[in-house]
Each structure stands twice: as structure tokens, then as C-alpha cells.
Specification:
- With 459 residues, the protein is mostly helical.
- Helix 7 runs antiparallel to helix 8 and helix 9 runs antiparallel to helix 11.
Amino acid sequence: MDAMTMPSVNPQLPPGPTTPTLVQTFQQLLSPLQYFPEQQRKYGDVFTLRFAGMPPLIVIADPKLTQALFTMNPKQFDSGEANRSFLESWVGQNSLLLLDGDRHSRQKRLLMPPFHGDRMRAYGETIQAIAQQVVAEIPLEQPFIAREMTQRISLQVILRTVFGLEEGDRFTELEQRLSSMVDSMTSSVWRTLAVFLKPLQQDLGAWSPWGKFLRQQRAIDDLIYAEIAERRGRDEDGMDVLSLMMAARDEDGEPMTDQELRDELMTLLIAGHETTATAIAWALYWAHRQPEVHQQLMAELGDWKAQGGALEGVLKLPYLDAVCAETLRIFPVTLFTFARMPKQPVELGGYRFEPGSMLLPSVYLTHRREDLYPQADQFRPERFLERQFSPFEYLPFGGSNRRCIGMAFAQYEMKLALATLLTEAQFELREAEPVTAVRRGVTMAPQGGISMVRCRSAA
């Protein structure tokens, strides 16, 4: 092919807003659901944003380009490094989320087994029992915040299935400290700024937001390392994730170090319980906001219970699956997949991207495409019964080698917890106006947490 017929490649970055970087940063943090769609309307499905302290962000909202990116050799990119500035202070430098290359591959192999197949499904009884216990403690006819209830469920699921902890002093202290630590940095948009902006991460004493966060984290670390030390002193094999992680060996026969175990446990605690709690709360909201959804879902769950209510059976309920899928579509918990940072020049969508840029597929913008999801702002579970979507059109758990390793576990927990809540109690929604998503740390959650009431069962 001679030069006259070579396809043209634009060495410039895609277009994007020209407002100052700091202004763009605050717009992305404070009003993302307005800002990102506005830029897509102005500049198309590939555009460039600026964010303080970061290289150029190349936002991708075209499934074909996402497919092209996800099917490239992952060795061409650093993805863990792209997350480091946001996440290292939360999960530690050895977290799977922050690793690249051989270290990422090694850690992923060590972590994968507990989250698949029989081992994962063995946690079903625990998930159901926790959901039953938590909902039973909700007072009748009194307003409560749905997300606080689902956060209690998801955190206790993590503590029991990952740590293998039962009720006791360490269980209670970890539950309280983890909830407090996360809430201290995510309870308002302004506190969330410190998660993203390094200049705000200043320890000004125990009463400063970052100082409080660091002290809570150190107390949690003490509890985690004490649990690891106790486990190493036992001569028994548990089925919880920590036991399986401690028993895992890499190709050289080496186990994970205490520091690696701590960082992966923090990753599972932070990433696992926050995201799932939000997803279950949203599902409760949509199931009660639209009566036809509630009616069809309860009919399917009624049949499931009548047939014995087998825990694994929730994985085979088509309408429950559709409701959960649509929940994760309309307000995905994370707005973007993990970024890809080219280690060498790559060509994508008619552009050449050099090292020093971050390629960022947008989950939210992809999920709101009208050509894929007609009436995209409407909650319609039926769309997932009418057709199948490719992994580049529907990607709430990311994709390629960076897809969430806990995806199957999270989906099982979401479906089983939702099914248990809806069959154990009756609820009413107290939100007169539609609820939208707001930033909660690096995730998006329902504004106000969703106010509900647990009703007395019909006689």
C-alpha cells in the first residue's frame, strides 16, 4: 500500500472542552451526570478531558472503539498505574487494582478461585441469613434509608465470606470502623474531593477529614494483621476467601505476603461492599417505583419460593436477572472502566495515542446510547429479555483482562439479597420525586440513600 492509499491517522488528541483544567476537574467531580453527556453532545463519542494532576483523559463512548481497545494486547497498556493516584491510599500498593504486567497476572491467578463455581455458591446460605437478619431488625412503619440497610448486608457478607468472621469483638469492631472510614470520605461531595485531589490529602490532626481517615485506616490494619497472624497459627483449612488466599501458591510455590493479603482484603472490603450495597439499594428503588416491575418480579419470586426456594435457583430467574441487569445499566455504580495507558503508540478510531494519555471507556455514556437502549432514561428490564448485549455494549463490571474478578459473586449476592428482602418483608417507597445518582467517593450512589418504610404484612 503506497502513501496515497494509507488511511490517515490524526496525531492530535480528539477535541474537547478548552476551559481551564481546574474548572473541568470540579465539573467532573461535582456534576458528572450532566457534564459528561454534555461533552458527548458537543464533541461526539470520543473526546478529551483534562483533570488536575492527570494526563489527558480520552473518553470513549463508542462500543466499536471499546471493542477494539479491549481486544488489543493488554501488554501494550498500563492500567493499574492509571488507578494509583485515586486508589492507593485506600487499598495499598499491592492491590490487584494497581498492578500491571506479570505482577497483575500472578495476583489475579491467586485471587480467582474463591469467586467461581461451587466455592462461590457455597456462600449462598450466609448471604440469605444475613439479609434475613438485617431486614428483621428494621422497625415496622418507620422511615429508614435503604442504602444503609443494604450496606449493612454487604459489609457483613464480606466479613463472613471473605474473613470467615462470626459475631464477636473483632467482627463488630471491623464492621463499625470500616463503615465509619468509608462514610468519613464519601458522606458528602466535598469530602469526596480529597479522594481525587492530592493537595487535600493533608493530615491536620485527628479531627481533619484526612487525618481521621488515616487513623481509622491504621486501626483497621491492626485488626486485619491480627486476624492474619491468628490464621497462620492455626492448623486448619477454612472455606472463607482469606483462608483460600493464604493457601494459594504461585508458579514458584510462593504464598502471598502479609502485606499482599492486607492490600487484597482492603480491596475486597472497599470495592466489594460499597458497590454491591449501592446496586441492591437501586434495585429496591426501581422495584417499588414501577408497580408493573414489582408485580412481575414478585410473581416470579413467588413461584421460586413455591418450588422450594433453592438458593442457586435465583441465578435461573429471568425477570430477576433482567431487573438486576437494568439496574446496573441505568445508573452504573462506576462511570468508567479502568483506564488504559499506552506504553507505546496505539491507533484507535483514526487517532494515534502516545504514551502519557489515558484511554477511558465510559460505562455510563455507553449505557445511555439511544441506538442501543431506546428510551435509555427509562427503567425497562424487558430490554434484557428481548436481546443480548455484547460485552462492549453492556459493561458494568469493566472488560478484557481488567473485568472485575468478583463479578459472578457480586451478581449472585445482588440477586439473592434482593430476592430475600422482597420475600421476607413488604416495603413502600417514600420518595415522591425521582432519585438520581450522586458521587460517593469513586462510585455513584442514590442521592439521599432512598427513603423507604417496612410495612406490616397483609393479613
